[in-house]
Design a protein that fits this description.
The complex is a heterodimer of chains A (about 200) and B (about 180). Chain A has six helices and no strands. By secondary structure, chain A is mostly helical. The longest helix of chain A has about 50 residues. In chain A, about 40% of the residues are buried. Chain B has a domain of about 100 residues. The N and C termini of chain B lie far apart (about 35 Å). Chain B: It is a multi-pass membrane protein.
Chain lengths: ~200, ~180
């Protein structure tokens, strides 16, 4: 795959306006953060503007998953960079996060300006269980994904280790996660999806 | 001031660097820094931010970074938080492209994400407990259960957009919990 950054496969030059619109749209229509915006991004990049084919897009997605950090901005930044260099990267990045970042600051600042009013205090209380549900659903999602990757036994063992280390010993989660990442690098990469019959 | 900016940078850098599994995985790590470590926000404030953040479209990690940075260190704080969230992994991706291409299907790379998931799950579960416990202490058991159960069905079963669910909870709170 040659990285011809200035030109797209069919030779047309990338228009910055298109780049902005593509990532603005996929960012603004994607609810629930991260992965929910990926199909929308694929629709813009592959189907609407045909800047790359499906395979190139999935390759980039696979790379994104190999690295930590937010999926959305990595995808937008990298695709922008590949299509139109540094300014393409900046353009796609800003389009994907800036509008909602500004909106978020405005919304919470306005709300906090009235925080002494009893009804605003009530609003903060009312929304707390909703945040609980949202994070709880995410927690269960991560348990299910662990199970499909590691199997129930290992998932439960790892959960128990994490609980003891973080909640009882109060060790910083960063240290535990770093330890798990090092373990993964040293492992043979034996997971449920890649198990071999002959082993053990 | 410089120390504060450095703290803002560090909190977002470390949370995003270790948040395998995208934006949502960074939320509990960020909470650990913002609430438990630096005490910039209370659990209640953080939960409000998460709920409103989910009611807006777009990536969650950058929405949280933008607000936390702004809240603690103004516009410059916000820019620093966003930079720390976005730049490290993007720079890694662009710089390590060749290497990553070779290893993208490596079982070790897959194992990394998989080994970290149970820990993220525990962090998220603890956070869930914190949010509900805090809600129980301030709004009482009845309101917490009612909003929680209705909210769950609305979001997960009836698939109502989070915009309306959060709006509904805000209105409910303004009317019944504002005393």
């Amino acid at each position: 795959m040659k990285a011809d950054r200035k030109n797209i496969p069919n030779g047309r030059r990338i228009r910055h306006r298109d780049l902005f619109i593509a990532f603005f749209r996929s960012g603004m229509l994607g609810y629930g953060g991260g992965l929910s915006a990926i199909p929308l991004m694929q629709k813009e990049v592959v189907e609407r503007y045909s800047w790359m084919d499906d395979e190139a897009f999935s390759d980039i997605l696979a790379l994104t998953n190999a690295l930590p950090g937010p999926v959305n901005t990595k995808m937008a930044g990298y695709i922008g960079w590949r299509l139109a260099g540094f300014w393409g990267m900046m353009n796609a990045l800003l389009a994907s996060f800036l509008p909602t970042a500004v909106l978020m600051i405005l919304l919470l600042t306005v709300l906090h300006a009235y925080k002494d009013k009893p009804w605003v205090e009530g609003m903060a209380k009312g929304v707390m269980p909703i945040a609980g549900v949202m994070i709880g659903v995410l927690a269960w999602d991560f348990v299910k994904k662990s199970k499909s990757g590691l199997g129930w036994t290992m998932t439960i063992v790892y959960i128990a280790i994490s609980l003891v280390v973080m909640q009882l010993l109060h060790i910083h989660p960063a240290i535990l996660i770093a330890a798990f990442i090092i373990m993964a690098m040293l492992s043979k990469g034996k997971t449920k999806t890649s198990h071999r019959v002959g082993e053990k | 001031m410089i120390t504060l900016y450095w703290k803002i940078f560090w909190a977002h850098f470390i949370s995003n660097l270790l948040g395998y599994g995208g934006g949502p995985a960074t939320i509990p790590l960020l909470e650990h820094e913002v609430v438990d470590h630096y005490h910039w926000q209370t659990t209640a404030q953080f939960s409000e931010m998460v709920a409103l953040g989910n009611a807006l479209p777009g990536p969650i990690a950058t929405k949280l970074a933008a607000y936390i940075g702004y809240d603690v260190g103004g516009i410059i704080g916000s820019i620093i938080a966003l930079f720390a969230t976005i730049a490290p992994s993007l720079i890694m991706m662009i710089a390590l492209l060749g290497l990553l291409m070779r290893y993208k299907n490596s079982p070790k790379v897959k194992a990394m994400t998989q080994y970290v998931r149970p820990t993220i799950a525990v962090l998220l579960a603890v956070m869930t407990y914190d949010f509900f416990f805090q809600s129980y202490e301030t709004a009482g058991l009845l309101h917490t259960l009612l909003i929680g159960v209705v909210g769950y069905f609305a979001l997960e079963k009836w698939r109502i957009s989070p915009v309306y669910v959060v709006l509904g909870a805000l209105v409910y709170g303004a009317i019944f919990l504002g005393d």
